[in-house]
Design goal:
Blueprint: H1 4-7, H2 23-34, H3 38-42, H4 50-61, H5 70-79, H6 84-87, H7 98-116, H8 124-133, H9 142-160
Helix pairs in contact: 4-5, 4-9, 7-8
Length: 179
């Protein structure tokens, strides 16, 4: 059974657990910048990294519709794929059931909160866990806004990729902006 602790074996140096400094956490986040999203790779496109995707979504969340907590939307966008720093970008093509994917993501969020950040001032680990736990399942209108941001980010990236001209076309219905 996959565990966050076992996934750490891929690191030449494992992040220091229990530090009072957030630096080990920042090193973990580096993987989000260097890990490309799998869907793009499978189509032969040098696509965005996980961090690119989250950053674009956070900027788009600044345009959240009236009535939603914009700051919370931005935080959710920044944290929604943080577990992929260990889990990697699992897609349906990987054949891993949704429940197992979500279990791995929860395990990673718990490891970050309980083992990596417990001694960092400010309760940041618990804040990340709270936001991460509240992501699944999302309820309207947050769920609709999150899906709009995800799809729109995908479309903007698609259109900005010159390689996409050679790639399989996408449905125009995916590329609508309806926050």
């Amino acid at each position: 059974m996959w565990t966050a602790k076992e996934a750490l074996n891929i690191f030449p140096e494992k992040p220091l657990e229990g530090s009072q400094s957030p630096i080990p956490y920042f090193h973990l986040l580096e993987r989000l910048k260097t890990t490309r999203r799998e869907g793009w790779k499978r189509h032969g496109i040098n696509g965005e990294s996980i961090a690119d995707h989250s950053y674009r979504m956070a900027l788009m969340a600044m345009m959240a519709p009236t009535g939603l907590d914009t700051n919370k939307c931005i935080q959710m966008c920044l944290i929604h794929d943080i577990a992929e720093s260990l889990v990697c970008d699992i897609t349906p093509a990987d054949g891993i059931p949704k429940e197992e994917k979500e279990r791995r993501e929860r395990s990673t969020i718990d490891w970050i909160a309980d083992d990596l950040l417990p001694n960092v001032d400010g309760g940041h680990g618990e804040k990340i866990r709270t936001i991460g736990v509240n992501l699944k399942p999302l309820k309207p209108p947050r769920a609709a806004t999150h899906m709009t941001l995800t799809r729109s980010s995908f479309c903007f990236r698609w259109w900005s990729t010159k390689s996409a001209q050679k790639a399989r076309p996408i449905s125009a219905s995916l590329c609508t902006w309806r926050p």
